[in-house]
Design a protein that fits this description.
This protein is of the alpha+beta class. It has two domains: 5-136, Tumour Suppressor Smad4 (Sandwich), CATH 2.60.200.20; 170-280, no CATH class. Helix content is 36%, strand content 16%. The protein has eleven helices and ten strands. It has helices at 5-13, 42-46, 93-98, 170-180, 182-191, 193-197, 207-214, 220-233, 239-248, 254-270, 272-280; strands at residues 19-23, 28-31, 38-39, 60-65, 68-73, 80-84, 102-104, 116-117, 121-127, 130-136. The chain has a six-stranded antiparallel sheet with strand order 2-1-10-9-6-7. It has a four-stranded antiparallel sheet with strand order 3-4-5-8, with no helix packed on it. A hairpin with a 2-residue loop joins strand 4 and strand 5 (68-73). Helix 5 (182-191) packs across helix 7 (207-214) and helix 5 (182-191) packs across helix 10. The radius of gyration is 23 Å and the shape is elongated. The termini are far apart.
């Protein structure tokens, strides 16, 4: 169970803990052991929903080095921004980027960016569209004026663009559409194949490459996505959420990807891939 702010303050006074992070589900600050890395992974930041975020060790983290806390990053996809946290001020990832005191660029291969030392006080960290408040060193001499804010009035870990939740019947609507449109199901599986395989830095395939591989009309993949977005959220957008929604609800998966790859191989063997590339003016690499 997450510890209370009073318990955390007592631990800091005793020298047991020097860093806390805000737990949105618990609605309180949670202590981070100084002898362990606190990973800012997809689980902590998004509850596992955002598949564009990485798992340890390919993500940012907080570690205790030479009696100081520092933020480091092995994330090859996202830069990491750190800005002072101001209680009562709504802060999204745009605000954090604008007010950033530290910026860690995306890592290059196995090389970490220069870590950022975090001074005592409250900070807010953004990774992609997600933000997370953290606090270093509660002031033990003056617990009436601690460095840890007593409460946070905003959802502290949030993703911009999630203003509208999925429709209540979204799963059924999307499942019905994909069952009746096997070409759309194959296209989504081929398009999101890196996500299905669980890659470290999954990215959608170029839509034209999907159309060429599966012998589809130009713009077909975009239309499939728009129809799914309409059935799930009743509006366009939600680009980052679509892959997560489809995978989390079992709407696409390894069997669909296998069928899509088999169809692409059959098209290649029959010469349809080359014809589609010429038709769409797409250069096959």
């Amino acid at each position: 169970m997450p510890e209370s702010p009073e318990r955390i303050k007592a631990q800091v006074r005793a020298g047991v803990s020097e860093l806390v992070v805000w737990s949105g589900p618990a609605g309180e600050w949670v202590s981070c052991p100084p002898d362990e890395i606190t990973w800012l992974d997809r689980g902590l930041l998004s509850g596992g929903r955002d598949l564009t975020l990485h798992r340890p060790p390919r993500c940012p983290g907080l570690r205790h080095v030479h009696h100081r806390w520092e933020l480091f990053s092995r994330d090859i996809s996202h830069p990491v921004y750190v800005a002072p946290f101001l209680a009562g001020t709504a802060q999204d990832h745009h605000a954090v980027e604008t007010a950033a005191r530290h910026v860690l660029p995306a890592a290059r291969g196995a090389l970490e960016a220069q870590p950022a030392r975090l001074d005592a006080g409250a900070w807010i960290i953004s990774v992609g569209d997600w933000v997370l408040p953290v606090c270093v060193n509660v002031a033990p001499e003056d617990l009436d004026n601690p460095t840890v804010p007593s409460r946070i009035d905003q959802p502290p870990t949030s993703e911009i663009g999630r203003a509208r939740p999925p429709r209540p019947d979204a799963v059924g609507q999307a499942a019905h559409y994909l069952r009746r449109n096997p070409a759309a199901c194959a296209a989504m599986a081929f398009y999101y194949q890196d996500f299905i395989r669980g890659g470290l830095a999954p990215q959608p395939r170029p839509m034209d490459s999907v159309a060429v591989a599966l012998d589809l009309n130009k713009g077909a993949v975009s239309e499939y996505k728009k129809e799914l977005q309409r059935r799930i959220w009743n509006e366009p957008g939600h680009q980052r959420e679509l892959a997560a929604f489809l995978l989390e609800n079992g709407l696409i998966g390894p069997p669909d990807l296998r069928r899509a790859l088999e169809a692409a191989a059959a098209n290649e063997a029959a010469g349809r891939t080359r014809q589609a590339a010429e038709r769409l003016r797409y250069k096959i690499k």
